């Protein structure tokens, strides 16, 4: 759209007539992300609190609509890429993040492990190497002091603070492993997300890995005992690798719980709507 037309619309954002404002807001949302830089510039030059608040809300609505679109497209066409799904979730809270930072940090972890990886290593030796790189050298660990913090679900914050919840740590672990052709995949274990080493696709895991406990190796019996404590049967959905869509759904469920605990109902409802978008995908 023409810059003069956009400026004219933005100038109406402080109009006291609610009907006029609603029309302007809808028009700006329809234009989408391309108008965000102009809105941000207008916010910075404005001294009117009402206008600034309205601009903030419009920017958020535009960016949230973009996240919804990105998530749907990912689920339909690109759900083999777990990292992209996690970055889309990240955009909900951090829409202006330079995502190359995340890509670089994960590439560094992969590179550091690759230098020490040898072809004839056993599966357990490979896991020991990953544990050393990710937990001892990089310093990633479970956030035991603030387990339900929403930041535990945003990938770049987990890499920045080096603390996360079971699923965020498991995602980083499996992404780095798979970049090294080490077959480690997420397991949708109730109450505690873990990963597993799978030598051949669709085969039963060789063993499981508790990433929240610094890569502790677990046997099948450990998983079955855990499920028994929860009064749950050892069904395949709890013991075999899950889809990336299932992983992102679980990340979103964690976020709804986190925002509910904080009493932030707006964010809880928005994350719930993202979760609903994925409910039709398996």
TrEMBL record:
Q: Which residues form the Protein SirB1 N-terminal domain?
A: 103-253
- Family from the record: Belongs to the UPF0162 family.
Instruction: From the Swiss-Prot or TrEMBL record, give the protein name.
Output: Protein SirB1 N-terminal domain-containing protein
User: Organism source for this protein?
Assistant: Sphingobacterium paucimobilis HER1398
What is the taxonomic lineage of the source species?
Answer: Bacteria, Pseudomonadati, Bacteroidota, Sphingobacteriia, Sphingobacteriales
